[in-house]
Structures are given as structure tokens and as C-alpha cells.
Amino acid sequence: MKLQTLNDIFFSIVEGKQERVMLVRDATQWVPISSQELYRDVAGTARALSQWGLTKGDRLAILSENRLEWAVADFASLLLGAVVVPIYSTLTAQQVAHILCDSGAKVVVVSTETQLEKVLSIRNQTAVERVIVMDPVETAAAAPMQPLMREGLDRDGELESRARTVVADDLASIIYTSGTTGSSKGVQLTHGNLTANVLNSLEGFDIRPGKHISISFLPLSHVTARHADVALLYRGVTLAYCPFIEQLPQALLEVSPTIFVAVPRVYEKIYSQVEQKAKGFPKRSIYNWALSVGRAYSPKIMTGETPTSLSWKVADKLIYSQVRARMGGRVEIFVSGGAPLGKELAAWYASIGIRIHEGYGLTETSPVIAINAPRAHKIGTVGRPLSNVEVQIADDGEILVRGPSVFSGYWNRQEETSNAFVNGWFKTGDIGNLDEKGFLSVTDRKKDLLKTSGGKFIAPQPIENSIKLNSLIGAAVVLGDRRKFAVVIISPCFPLLEDWARANHISFSSRQELIAHPKVKDLYEGIVAEVNRGLARFETLKKVLLVPDEFSAIDGILTPTLKLRRKAIEERYRKQIDDLYQEAEVPSLRSG
Question: Can you give the pTM of this predicted structure?
């Protein structure tokens, strides 16, 4: 039977009859969940939702960290034809209220007492009729989810018949974009949109039922993580749920996944930790030697081969295997998505024997547009477009897409929906190009391109990715739109900077005092000057602004998926930025 809806995908997962379709962590161990147990939990939850009046087209919101109950609430709603509205657990009460009001959600499923209190504080602003809580919380304001799950039938014919009435064109989800520009829109994705992507995104990957395990730790409220989980479950991969990112290192050691799906920020942190551990003699010399060996064999790595030379085996034992051990030691497939990985970071991983399959997509495309597959892989690109997706490049360089996974429109925003398309093609807002072999490269976000007062265009993301390769950098933001030259704001990696300062006998009593020290300024200007050597003259960064803050999603500087909000950064540091440009003379940074 042709699979056309996410309900078809769910039944396919259940029919796989796996004993370990999922893993959940209790106080002492990882507990397996069978496909039959998953069916029972979903059926019980769906039956309760139906009895409360949730019906086709109604919206149900999920406000939770990654856990079994998230998937149960998702599948249960979809079987009823309801529309799922994921909400980041890190959002404030008022941000949650905006999504609940805009979507008109009737039911909210929350994870913990903290999330419950968040919803209750703004419930009177919304149309919410029912609240369900996953944790065992003593409250009359919400229904406990665990008893609902336990009341499910081993086979529910009535529910299955109802689920089969859902068709591909029915709305499955409204996903609110994280909004790097500050505005958040509800992206309408149908069952057909999401299913078409699930069926095609992993073409060419050797993923067989019962062979693989993956950890679900990227927030399921983001389309990349939710898609990855469903696609992997459909392929028979066991999912282990990790609710909080700080639990990931331990989960990796305990679960030993064979598939690792992460955003670039996670790969950057692993790289920084390795760089830091390799400091000092003789560690640094051994590390540099191992990297030189790895670089020589990188072309083989990118084709999926494992070198067999003695030098490679020694380097692998001393360095490469130690990095893999941090990720559980068994990962066979590494995937990156959600943001640009950066060619230099991808090359570093290749030099230690790790081939990262970088993909590209947007919420509006369900999400995958292109991905580097095992037999079609080119470093520095995001791979070839999926077989059911068409890509073309507009005259101004914008990437245009069409295909069955492209969204049906923005919720309650007809004008913005119309503006998102040109002649039937979705305008991604990204700048890129297709090479002669069909590999897609993404340069930057169109709205992020900086146009200097001299008329030159600068793509900030590749420059920022180069700067972030230095472990002393926490975050880097390149600015310069409508200005004479480009500058960079740097948030240092303060733990490493503080270690460096003590090693160099620099005393300080605060971060502000630390970044104001002449030697620290000289250190970071040297890092930027080294990056400048690889840039065109008009791209070079003329000034460096060090800030004493660590950027986070909590303060609104990063999105929940850890992307920079440039406008928020410019607003926060407007005076310091203006001061940089008001200086009469602009001495060039030293060349390194």
C-alpha cells in the first residue's frame, strides 16, 4: 500500500513489531518500549482526546522536552485528524500565549509542573479547553497523561478506521518558526508534505530495521528533529529520548548510538573540546601529526572508505577513536542540519575519519531539500536535492524550490503566503548555487547578506564559521550592512579565556575587566586577522568588539535552535557598534 499520511507511517512502524522501538530512561536504566506498547499508549491517548471532543481540524499544542509522551501525543492527535502545534519548552509564558491564541489550540499537553504553571498563568488569554500533564503532578487543573496511555487497547478498530479517513491534503501540523528576524509565523504542513519528505530524505542510506539506534535530543518542537525521529522510526531505528542537552554526554556513553543527528552547534562544541584537550606538549604535537595523516586520507573518508595504512591505524588509536568514544564509540552515520555546518569544520571531521552528511531545508519544506548521501557526497555542499524535489537558482541567486514537501501556506497570513512564492516556486530566502554535478551550495540567508556603502555584498555566515573554529570563540557576529566596512562582535568562550588569562598572569575581577585588558584584545584581534588573510579585501573585518555576555536562547539573542538573531544583537550593542564606526581613523588589524 502506498503511504500517503503520517497515520500510514505510524501503522507501518507498529507493523514492524519491534521489541525496542524506543528507549526511555528511568531512575536506574534504559527501558525498552515495544511497537505494541507504543500502539497501546497512542490508542489510549487518542481515545481520551476523542471523548473530550477533539476532532478533525482542531489544534492540539505540545509544550514539552523530548520524551516518549511527546511522540504519543503527536501520533494520537494525528490519528484523529487533529493538527499538532509544537511549542518550545524554553519559551516564556507570553510567547506560549501568542502561539496558543494564534493557532486557536483547544488542548495543550505539557511535560512538567513548571510547564503546567506556565500555561495556567496565561490560560485565560487563550481558547484552551483542556490541559494534559505528562508528569505525575497533583492538580485539578490538568488531566494526568499516564493513566490515559495505559487504557489503550491492543487493537482499536474504531480508531484505525477513523485514522484511515485522514488524507494527504489534510493539515497535520502548524509549526511556528523560531524567527531569526523576531517574527514568528505558523507554517502549515499537510500529511502529504511531511510524509513525502519522510519517505525520501534517507534514500541511499543503509538503514535496516533492528540494526541502528539514535538519541533524540534536538527539540522536537523544531521540524528537523521531529522529521528525523519519524523518518528513523519508519526505517526501524530505535530512538532513545534525552530530554535535556546536559544529559547528552552521559546518554551517549550509555546508549552508544549508531546514528548521530545534530545541529552544527553540537559539532562545534565537540571540536572545541578536542582542541582544548590537545593543548600542551607532547599532546599538541601528536594531535597535529594525526590531523596531517587524516587530511591525506580525507578523500577516502568522503567516499566512505576506511584507510588501512599503519600511520592511519596509529593516528586512529591515539586521537580519532578518542573523539568517537565521546559519542558512544559506535556511530556509523553522522548527520548535520538546521544551520550551515561550515566547510572548514566538515573538513576537520573528515580529517579524523568522520564523514558528516550535511543536509539543508526549512520548516516550509518539511524540511529536507537536499542532503549529502553516502554515494553522492561533496564536502562544502549540502548535497543533491531529494529525488522528489526540484531546485532552481533565481537571477539574484536565491534558491527556489517546488515539490510535494513544500508547505501549503502560513496560518492566517494570506498575503505572506502569496509573497513566499513566485510562479509556483517557493522562495527559500537563501542564496546558493548548483554545480555541474547537481550539488547544492548555500552561501547565506538573503536577508543576512551585508551590502557595504561601497556596494559590495558580504555573506557573514561563512566568515563567522571560520572564526568559530578557534576554541577561544563562543560566538561571532559579522555586521556592516550599509556601512563603510565590516566588523565583528565576539562573545568569548569564557572558561577557556579565563584559563588563558591565568596562564599569562593576567588578573581580573570580572568579565568586563578581562575583555578590556590590552593582551586579551590583542589575542582576539590576532584571531580575526588570521581569518582576514583568507578573505577578499572588501570582506575583511576592520574592527573587533568583545562583549562580556554569553549568547543564549533565554535572553532572546539565539533562537531555540541556537541560530543568531542579528537584529536583537544589533539592538543590544547599538551604542558600542556606533562607536566603532564613529572613530575617525580605522587602523587595519595586524595581518597575523
Answer: 0.89
